[in-house]
């Protein structure tokens, strides 16, 4: 998580470039290969922080208003959930999951959220506990018996919206996110060496 608004050399806000656009480009590049596999799975590591965010397609690169790295990260994680749900609808031969590892004691938590870390360090999960669900989603036959496109925590599907939180987005916003990401990705595909 980048706590100050910083841009990549391509002019993209770093959190968006890493968490959303990077996820989109990598996954879509792999889709043709995954479509050919018998037990293809895509698991995206998100965050429960996304529960406080409604998809905001009007400011994907967080250029308007005051920059809050934690909320930008949460918005990116909401975007990942939407990506997973959209891919699950479009690619029925691939099992898509998105998951929250729980709050784990990692270098990223220590450096990106030092106040949170200081308050919570005695109750944080170990890295192994945080990784448990993603590993289970990757290798368990039980995981693929559940519908594609779900959000998981502790090996269980959990809601992607809190009651009364007003974080639901209209379908057209979710479709617009996919369109905008495809436009961004085409810019990078056309400038990649060897293409």
Q: Your description of this structure?
A:
With 195 residues, the chain is of the alpha/beta class. The chain is 46% helix and 8% strand. The protein has 6 helices and 4 strands; from the N terminus they run H-E-H-E-H-H-H-E-E-H. Strands 1-2-3-4 form a 4-stranded mixed beta sheet, sandwiched between helices. Helix 1 runs parallel beside helix 2, helix 1 crosses helix 6 and helix 2 crosses helix 6. The longest helix is centred in the middle third of the chain and has 22 residues. It is globular and about 45 Å long. The model has no long low-confidence stretch (mean pLDDT 91).
Q: Can you lay out the helices and strands and say which pair or pack?
A:
Layout: H1 14-34, E1 41-45, H2 69-90, E2 95-99, H3 107-112, H4 114-120, H5 127-139, E3 150-153, E4 156-157, H6 171-191
Parallel strand pairs: 1-2, 2-3
Antiparallel strand pairs: 3-4
How would you briefly describe this protein structure?
The chain is an alpha/beta fold. The chain is built from six helices and four strands.
Strand order of the biggest β-sheet = 1-2-3-4
Spell the H/E element sequence. HEHEHHHEEH
Tally of contiguous helical segments: 6
User: Separation of termini?
Assistant: 31 Å
Q: Tell me the helix content.
A: 40-55%
The main sheet comes to: 4 strands, mixed
Provide the low-confidence segments as ranges.
none
Shape: globular
Strand residue percentage: 5-15%
Count of distinct strands: 4
Mean pLDDT: 91
What is the CA-atom radius of gyration, in angstroms? 17 Å
Structural class based on helices, strands and sheet pairing = alpha/beta
